[in-house]
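Lab notes, practical 5.
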Amino acid sequence: MINPELHKKPTALDRDKHRNLKLRTALSNLKASASLNSLFLTTAEFGDACKEYPILFIAAGKDEQGKEQVAPVAVFGVTQGENLFLQADGRWDAFYVPAALRAYPFTMARVGPDQFAVVLDESWEGFSTEEGEAIFGADGQPTPMITELRKFIEQLEVETERTRLAGQRMMELKLLQPKRFDATLPDGSTLTVDGFLAVDEERLAQLTDAETLELARNGLLSLLHAHQISMGNMRRLIDRRVGSLANKA
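Output from the prediction step:
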């Protein structure tokens, strides 16, 4: 899945065009997230991500049948362009790094009804023709690095589709509603975070026994609980921001 804020110049990987391209793996690919205050998260990641980040849902338009779509995101900052987890030296100040960021500068894009292609971000400074790990071997075949990476992003694409269906079902059951988060900072000023969706606990409690059983069996109930747990990280994110601003003062 191509993220325009992350993949600035996406192009399909081509064995002729990129025959001599190399990847400088010593350069942290996490630096590409410097201006991201959130990033798409698959539901398979909720268990790990809920310990580190607030997990919120954002509206993602409608599908071809007119059904509302939502996308879960891990939140890195509370203002536009703010990433409070990326350190100046390129390190990530959390144990879990979202899969889409670990895959960068590569991703996968749909090029046909059932066809996908590996895509790379040509704007990434880690690409070189002089140094680094080769993407294609002398025989023109993908190197083991790219072969393993393709497996990773193919699985990520599978999980992305599962995430889409999970979000669709949550919307059908009206479990997600617009929310806002208000916080008072140490200096007395207030901060509001809105424009996102979160679980409606009252609606969740009103589900029928059959609906609750369905959610328990298909794993959605545990996802909603992970999301609820993650909301406690919003306060920690505010504290992280306060600490970051204090260090810069």
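Observations recorded by the TA: The two ends are 38 Å apart (CA to CA). Helices lie at 46-49, 99-103, 144-172, 201-205, 209-218, 220-230, 233-248.
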